[in-house]
Fold this sequence. Notes:
The protein is mostly helical. It contains 7 helices and 4 strands. The chain has helices at residues 3-27, 35-58, 65-91, 97-120, 128-154, 161-188, 271-275; strands at residues 205-209, 216-220, 224-226, 233-235. The protein is flat.
Amino acid sequence: xxxxxxxxxxxxxxxxxxxxxxxxxxxxxxxxxxxxxxxxxxxxxxxxxxxxxxxxxxxxxxxxxxxxxxxxxxxxxxxxxxxxxxxxxxxxxxxxxxxxxxxxxxxxxxxxxxxxxxxxxxxxxxxxxxxxxxxxxxxxxxxxxxxxxxxxxxxxxxxxxxxxxxxxxxxxxxxxxxxxxxxxxxxxxxxxxxxxxxxxxxxxxxxxxxxxxxxxxxxxxxxxxxxxxxxxxxxxxxxxxxxxxxxxxxxxxxxxxxxxxxxxxxxxxxxxxxxx
Length: 276
């Protein structure tokens, strides 16, 4: 069984357990279900919901697969450890619960910081404003998490309490704003070349043979078509070579983009440039 599917089933099982136990706690007499049980149900249910979000985000392809994997691993591990510490704090005596709550809160903050990274890291856009906001969100997110962990462990910032809290508040505000801006640019900004006129008619009639039933089928490029016989869905995608900034590379007699200056990959060079 794939690891992701196994983790998903664990979280779903925890959600179901918390749900049914919660319903039983409401229906049964109060003396049967103590406050410790109710708090445990609340914590497990909340973490299960958060865990499902982490699993979904972990399936998103990042810029670098290895970075995305270790980010997912750290966030998941931190969430599991903090869950265990919070449950332990609920059930141990009053002498130790404060220590477990502090440790759980600190490790939970680390987990949330890496979940934030898990959200921001896969976002992509070629605009400078996006790259600036994404970098700013990652940097201030890490700073915010570090300051919160420090505050939890040290019961504040000592005699530097007021200025450090101001820095924490500013960092958190910048993290939220830059994260929203980066996400908005990644989702709604025009893609490179989207508004540029193409050098050819993108709606080209194509005659092909269906790979499933060998029936001759008429299709059009860049549009969904179905085989006339077996109804197999077919799509022929045609795209012009463009630089990441959107500049059209068709018949370009240069090894770098004249608009942004980036080197053109070898497989995107015009034929005359390859033979030189």
